[in-house]
Amino acid sequence: MADRVPVSAPVSGDRTPGRPAGPGRFGRLGRSLREAVLGYLFILPALAVFAVFVFYPLVKTVILGFYRTPPFPNLPSRFVGLSQYRSVISSTAFLESLWRTVLFVVFTVPIGLVLGLGLAVLANQRLGGIQIFRTIFSSTVATSVAVASVIFYTLLNPEVGLFSYWLGHQGGAGILNNPTLALPAVSVVTIWQNLGFTFILMSAALQGVPDELLEAARIDGSSQWHRFWRVTLPLLSPTVFFAVVVGTIGAFQAFGQIDLLTQGGPNNHTDVLIYYLYQQAFLFNDTGVAAVLSVVLFVILLILTFVQFRFFERRVFYGR
Amino acid sequence: MDGERSGDVERRGDVERRRRPVGPLVRRILRYTLLVVAAVVVAFPIYITVVNALLSPQQIAARPPTLFPVHPQWGAFRSAFTLGNLGIFLRNSLLVTVAITVAEVATSALAGYAFAFIRFPFSRTVFVLFLATLMIPMEVTLVPNRETIVALGWFNSFPALIVPFLASGFGTFLFRQSFRGVPRDLHDAARLDGYGHWRFLTRVVLPLNRPAIGAFTVFAFLGAWNQYLWPLIVTETNGVRTVQIGLRQLQALSINQTNVIFAGTVLAALPIFVILIVFQKQLVRGLTAGAVKG
Fold first, then answer.
1. Cβ of B167 and A46 within 8 Å?
2. Average pLDDT score over residue span A137-144
3. Which of B26, B60, B78 is the last residue of a domain?
4. CATH number at residue B131
5. Which residues neighbour B201 within 8 Å (Cβ) at sequence distance 6 or greater?
6. Residue of B23, B27, B26 lying closest to B4 (CA atoms)
7. Residue B48 within any structural domain of the chain
8. Per the CB < 8 Å rule, is B277 touching A121?
9. Interface touch A151/B262, C-beta < 8 Å
10. Average pLDDT value over all residues in chain A
11. Which of A61, A101, A166, A289 has its CA 20 to 30 A from that of B33?
12. Which DSSP letter does residue A265 get?
């Protein structure tokens, strides 16, 4: 377009665009100042929100961890330094909740991934009506955690729940009150609710696998099974890795399903880290312990995010 | 299963036929069977939810179970509004979600534009700060954030649900990347034509980046609609509670009203289902943006 030849005259009233006639150091300085001010005006709304609701509270959380919450309200909280961090992190309650969270990750992430990938492969065929299946497979993306949880909670109701009936758990305390089955049940709900997202992710990745490669492998006489393991899967590995990290981060933040299905029970068997934090903060009002738990959660998520970032750097490198 | 796609249909078809002359019909049937089985398993919870919303509580409890509503009864949906206050909850969710979505898109577009096109001091540093927000989820700052909300006098109000989410690090990052795809020449030409930054943003950059904006809009809408933990801890009355928290109350209804519970979940999920159908492309793009863009 008009790179060198101005198409139209500057709009009246607007500041003169383009280069000034002379060297005009002062004008250039003025313009770059205007530019700087404008830049900050543009980022100001977002920056203000981040300052108040992200950075300040993060620092505040770390500081709150240094103060022990008094046993009765309205007493001053006491500065105890790192000792509260030490005592919380070495406490059995914390270690158990961390262990349950790890179990929850192990239950949900690999199975969810395999199922999502399986559905994606299944739907990645040239068949009539395949679009209907794709829509069905991605449908759980439309269910929020709360929607999925309430549906399964009702279907698992020991008196009237259909799934309780089919699983032979009608009557009695019910699956969600069973110490052995509660966490697996919560995991199943989580896997189902995430399935749509995993499917969408894996489908997008599958469609990025170049046809020529599969064609070449086919002409070389490799079987479908062989092609999947040796060509498709290696090419999907970046997305698989992404899904694992994102899934793990999500599992560490999974709150709604616990709150709606088991409330940490029975007997703390589903009391994962985030739920333990919530109980300390808002049910027992122990701000100090909750702050320490928040910091621990933050550090875990930070490590996971770094793993993800590092991996992306590598992928960009390989991609070139 | 083949990893084939719709491109090169003819050629692919020829190769297929030459190499595997036997049993294409059997294969087709097998593939459809697998697809149908998978679809039934995945969709069953949703299907039975809709069915149960149309049955009476007695029919839901009856064994063997009723798997098809022969005489659908729509009363449960009415009860979801009267008993379950779904009307208020849905209105609140819509209000909060639209406000958050519009604001997030606007603040992210402004910031993304600044990082892509405006030279200002410390822009790199500030951009890293924006990226850092991606590593600090709401879950780790709950305690002080609720204190802030209480101190501002916003507890149990719409600002509490909206204001903390008026900006998005992810959106800013996404828009910056996308905006940088606008050719430099276009920028220079616009300047020569007397376009300031504002006009360049609104007349050139935004229209050119409609796909990215659409994808992020759907992504932001979904995220805001599905929020659970934060709304739970900063609200306490139905007047401001969102539908996700409303479901929590609905779930507590007695087992004589299971049909109302199911009807409520249908109503809570419906808006997102509509979005899934209508904006499928944007949704897919939004959800995969993180994975694809890196």
1. yes
2. 92
3. B78
4. 1.10.3720.10
5. B109, B110, B113, B117
6. B27
7. yes
8. no
9. yes
10. 86
11. A166
12. -
Chain B residue closest in CA terms to A6:
B192
Strand partners, A79: A67
Please give the residue range of the domain that contains residue B45: 9-78
Q: Is the pLDDT of residue A15 over 70?
A: no
Tokens of B45: 């919870």
Give A79: exposed, middle or buried? Use CB within 10 Å, 0-12, 13-18, 19+: exposed
Total tally of structural domains belonging to chain B: 2
pLDDT tens for A66-101 read: 999 888 777 888 898 899 999 999 999 999 999 999
Contact B251 A153 (CB under 8 A): yes
Please list the residues that pair with A78 across neighbouring strands: A68
- If we measure between CA atoms, which residue out of A97, A111, A298 comes closest to residue A189? A111
Are residues B170 and B190 part of one domain?
A: yes
Q: Enumerate the residues of chain A whose CB falls inside 8 A of the CB of residue B269.
A: 142-144, 147
- Nearest CA to CA, how far is B202 from chain A (Å)? 13
Q: Which residue of A has its CA nearest to B117?
A: A39
Residue where the block lists tokens 């992430």:
A109
B257 occurs within a structural domain: yes
Query: What one-letter code names the amino acid at A306?
Result: F
Residue B2 lies in a domain: no
Identify whether residues B61 and B114 lie together within a single domain. no
Contact B184, B211 (CB under 8 A): no
Residue of B nearest to A291 (CA): B143
pLDDT bin (cut points 50, 70, 90) of residue A5 is: very low
Do B104 and B194 lie in one domain? The reply is: yes
Assess whether B97 and B63 both reside in one domain.
Answer: no
**Chain B residues near residue A146 by CB distance under 8 angstroms:** 226, 228, 244-245, 247-248, 268
Which of the residue ranges A31-35, B1-5, B79-83, B134-138 would you say has the lowest mean pLDDT?
Answer: B1-5
**Chain B residue with Cα closest to A252:** B139
Of B5, B143, B287, the CB nearest to A197: B287
Chain B hits for A295, Cβ within 8 Å = 140
Please, are residues B194 and A17 in contact by the beta-carbon 8 Å criterion? yes
Mean pLDDT over residues B6-13, rounded?
Answer: 44
Q: Which of A39-53, A106-120, A208-222, B80-94 has the weakest average pLDDT? A: A208-222
My answer on whether B33 and B125 are in the same domain is no
ipTM, two decimals, is: 0.86
Q: DSSP readout, A109-162?
A: HHHHHHHHHHHHHHHSS--TTHHHHHHHHHGGGGS-HHHHHHHHHHHT-TTT-H
A168-193 confidence digits (pLDDT tens): 888 888 899 999 999 999 999 999 99
Confidence grade of residue A302 (pLDDT, cut at 50, 70, 90): very high
